[in-house]
Amino acid sequence: MNGTRKNANAAPDFAAPDPKALEAIGRALEAHYADLVQAPLPEKFVELLARLEAGDRASEPQGSGDANG
Amino acid sequence: MPTASFKDGLLGEIKNLRAFAISLSGSVSLADDLVQEALLRAWSNSEKFQPGTSLRAWLFTILRNIYYSNYRKRAREVQDSDGFYARRLTVPGDQESHLDLEDFRRALTRLPAEQREVLTLIGASGLSYEEAAVICEVGIGTIKSRLSRARSKLAELLALDNASGTPAERKVRRAG
Asked: Per residue in A3-37, pLDDT tens?
């Protein structure tokens, strides 16, 4: 391609998709991600944090033990 | 010990962390293991988090490190096998340029992880180029070039580039 753009500091060895394709990709990417974020959260993660919090509180008097697990 | 607000912060980020993990590993089951490990590591290293900086970026960094050191090989084996990408959904948009989400996800798994993560971080997770550069431990220029490579590879895989007709039209043509 001999179309040069001002801000292209390195000549890419691939063709840039056209604006419509970029738009479609952007929208698909957002939909993909939004679908994942909206999925119900497995209970186990909430439970894990609750356990960690409870565990820390229980071992607090012991002071700082080894934290590398 | 981590504060209650740190815990609330983690809680608020789990969904995003999981979405990033799934996008990166291509597998829900692997992603859940990754998220679990990342949360454990974040909890025991909470003092290293600097308040006022992005908790999301910090968690993504942790999860990404775990992925590249322990999970990358496993990911290649299980990718696509848990049926996650078999979900049928269509990306909303005008009729002309809609993409099937299943097609898109399949294409996404075919990108190198380095491209997939940059695409996800910037195109979906709402992180800045600067944050993505810190997370991926590369310069902003590298982030930008990975991003454009990722986009053009996707366009190629999804046959969006320069070919005549919209994806939907081509799909019909291919089927016919």
From this structure: 444 444 555 567 788 899 999 999 999 999 999 99
| B6 shares its domain with B74 | yes
Q: Quote the domain boundaries for residue B36.
A: 1-81
Distances (CA, A) of B127 to B4, B5, B16, B57, B152: 25, 22, 11, 8, 21
In this structure, what CATH number is given to the domain that contains residue B69? 1.10.1740.10
Q: Answer yes or no: do B39 and B97 share one domain.
A: no
pLDDT in tens, A29-39: 999 999 999 98
Nearest CA in chain A to B43: A52
Residues from chain B that touch A25, judged by Cβ atoms under 8 A, are: 99, 151, 154-155, 158, 160
Claim to verify: residue B93 and residue B128 sit in the same structural domain: yes
Helices (H), B26-71: 28-44, 55-66
ipTM value: 0.81
Closest in B35, B40, B161 to A21, CB measured: B161
**More confident call, B74 vs B91:** B74
Which chain A residue has the Cα nearest residue B95?
A: A24
Interface residue B175 vs chain A (CB under 8 A): no
Q: B61 and B110, same structural domain?
A: no
* CA dist list (Å): B75 to A39, B25, B69, B108, B153: 21, 6, 12, 14, 21
Per-residue pLDDT, averaged over B121-150, amounts to 96
Q: Please indicate if any CB of chain A lies within 8 Å of the CB of B39.
A: yes
* Domain count of the fold of chain B: 2
